[in-house]
Amino acid sequence: KGRSSGVALFLSALEWAPNLGAQGSLLLLNSTAVQIKRYDWAAGLWSEVQTTPGPGLQSTHTIAVRLPVSDIVLMGVAYTGDPLPPLLVVDGASGSVSQTPPCPAPISCNGGLYRGPICSHPNGTRAILFSKDNQRIYEYVAATNTWSDRAALPTELNSVTNIACTIPDLGIVLFVDRPGGVYKTYIYKPGF
After folding, report:
1. SS3 for 28?
2. pLDDT, tens digit, 9 for 90 and up, residues 117-174
3. CB count, 10 Å around CB of 135?
4. Reduced to 3 states, what is the DSSP secondary structure of residue 133?
5. Among the listed ranges 2-11, 56-65, 87-96, 124-133, which one has the minimum average pLDDT value?
């Protein structure tokens, strides 16, 4: 365990896939090397899942979000090109990779041009994208591989400096924000 993959692993996002392999696997989106790598927990080895997985992958902000009930991991980058790229969808059981339709808005947080944290919906079958760029909330539905515009972004969440995480047991998304260096927390309960 702990063997090096021989690749610089900065500018990366990690997510755990508990059903990928005998004891689960870490999935790593490495935008420096433009690849998705897998660390098989039981074997203690890194392997390549996919190289050059999509447009605009070389970025300083990468994301990885697991939808536990759908058993997929969404991976992608903060990218403001035209058109916006899709997210990569890694099947949590097989490791196969597909794509979402193009993202409806840039994804990331804490960046002047890349606004919109993404997290799992509390029900675990969808993802929620909170877009500061156009002040909308978008939903990704794994079962249909579609994006939908769901609501206006609440004023309190309209900040470039926030991050979000899901608390499934409470059915909420928790935000931490630091406007002017003062930390604040907000709770969002999806009505969809």
Report:
1. strand
2. 899 999 999 999 998 888 899 999 999 999 999 999 888 887 766 788 999 999 999 9
3. 15
4. coil
5. 2-11
Q: pLDDT value at position 38?
A: 94
Indicate the pTM of the whole model: 0.87
Q: Is residue 143 classed as helix, strand or coil in its secondary structure?
A: coil
Spatial separation of the C-alpha atoms in residues 149 and 13, rounded to whole Å: 26
Q: Is the pLDDT of residue 1 over 50?
A: no
Dihedral pair phi/psi, residue 107, rounded to 5°: -115, 135
**CA angle (107 as vertex; 102, 112 as ends), nearest 5:** 130
Phi then psi dihedrals of residue 158, to 5 deg: -85, 65
In angstroms, the CA 137 to CA 152 distance is 6
Tell me the C-alpha distance between 64 and 129, whole Å.
Answer: 13
Secondary structure of residue 139 in the 3-state scheme: strand
Classify 106 as helix, strand or coil: coil
Residue 42, amino acid:
A
